[in-house]
Amino acid sequence: MRTQVGIVGAGPAGLMLSHLLHLQGIESVILESRSRDYVENRLRAGVLEHWVVDLLTQTGVGARMSREGLMHDGINISIEGRLHPINFKTLTGRGVMVYGQHEVVKDLIAKRLADGGRILFEAEALQVDDIAANPTIHFRKDGKTQVLACDFVGGCDGFHGICRTSIPDGVLTTFERTYPFGWLGILSASPPPSHELIYAYHQRGFALFSMRSPTVSRLYLQCDPDEDVATWPDGRVWEELHIRLGDDARTRLAEGQVLQKGITAMRSFVVEPMQHQRMFLTGDAAHIVPPTGAKGMNLAIADVLVLSRALTAFYRTGGSDLLEGYSHTCLQRIWKAQRFSWYMTSMLHRFPADTLFDQRRQRAELDYVTSSKAAATALAENYVGLPMD
Ligand code: FAD
Ligand code: DHB
Prior knowledge:
Blueprint: E1 2-8, H1 12-23, E2 28-31, H2 36-41, E3 47-48, H3 50-58, H4 63-68, E4 70-72, E5 74-79, E6 82-87, H5 88-92, E7 96-98, H6 101-114, E8 118-120, E9 123-129, E10 136-141, E11 144-155, H7 163-166, E12 173-189, E13 198-201, E14 207-213, E15 216-223, H8 234-245, E16 257-272, E17 275-276, E18 279-281, E19 287-288, H9 296-317, H10 321-324, H11 326-348, H12 356-369, H13 373-384
Parallel strand pairs: 1-2, 1-11, 2-8, 5-13, 11-18
Antiparallel strand pairs: 3-7, 4-7, 5-6, 9-10, 10-11, 12-15, 12-16, 13-14, 14-15, 16-19, 17-18
Helix pairs in contact: 1-6, 1-9, 9-11
Bound molecules: flavin-adenine dinucleotide (FAD) and 3,4-dihydroxybenzoic acid.
3,4-dihydroxybenzoic acid binds near residues 197, 208 and 294.
């Protein structure tokens, strides 16, 4: 099998890359280790930056999002139970869209297949050879090992994929920070406590009150990173959510059937450069942010937009300047998103090793961002998404 761009991974990065390339007349094949059903139902991020909303709409994959997504003008920050709204629309003229990552994935898969795109599900990439000249991706499908030959490889296979590790030792530098907590997340058949998201700071730890629709909530609690989900029966989860929201009378947060529950660890991670010869890493394959800033999926889409433009220029003119500059271009945005995600994470979580000084400083930071227009504007412009061009 041969194509122009071999893509490993059918997450938001791989699917969007294939879609954008198709619009420019460039062929690709996506290899995805999981089934279609699995990737379409894998619950992850939920907030789209304003320019991602525009990009999905302009490229013909925004129709369901504009019907079913929830446009939000801002967020609330809760400090020990008191709500402080931050209105992005007033501060920046822009808002964000709450629309689940798995819905974006469903829309992109449907569009790629309708446009004649090739996505091989349950096809696990094993290794990539000859990255320097004639890349070949070895993969296993239906028990047989096969080969996909291509001009370029899109390494869109997430943090645990094989593309990053196919790059020889010594090429990449890793920058990493781990956090002494994780997030327990539930999906619940109940309305959210507020029309817009609530990021809650509390002595007992952070909580986030988000949603997927007016009747389905997505709720998170700061927990220990290596905790077993079995130690969090539904009753304990609801109790803790009420406390961290300051909902002492149990009147603000409706409880409902818990549809899904899981624990996610937190890390900040970047590799530089994000490319080697004919292999280009995108999204979680190259970088991870802690989820507090809602940046993960947005960064993945930003990378593939840059890569699709560079590949388009190459196939049109033979010029490789944009391809050579891919990593440098992406990293400027990525480090700003890393900074913002670290800022939101450190402002809102309880760190077990914090001194009393640290706690007072953290409260001052929260008081500042909820009372100063300048500080709130800095948060808002990062949250809605820094300009792409
Ligand atoms: P992925 O979505 O990980 O896609 C990579 C794809 O590659 C997967 O489909 C995988 O099956 C496939 N793959 C891997 N290895 C191979 C192989 N060898 N062969 C073929 N295919 C392969 N961000 C937020 O902003 N908010 C959140 O609440 C949030 N929650 C998250 C929860 C979890 C459990 C995780 C893992 C991430 C979460 N994120 C969140 C981050 C966000 O979802 C990611 O940044 C986003 O998925 C990145 O997209 P991607 O396409 O780069 O990678
Ligand atoms: C969601 C996840 C986030 O990490 C975030 O910052 C906001 C919303 C969500 O899943 O809805």
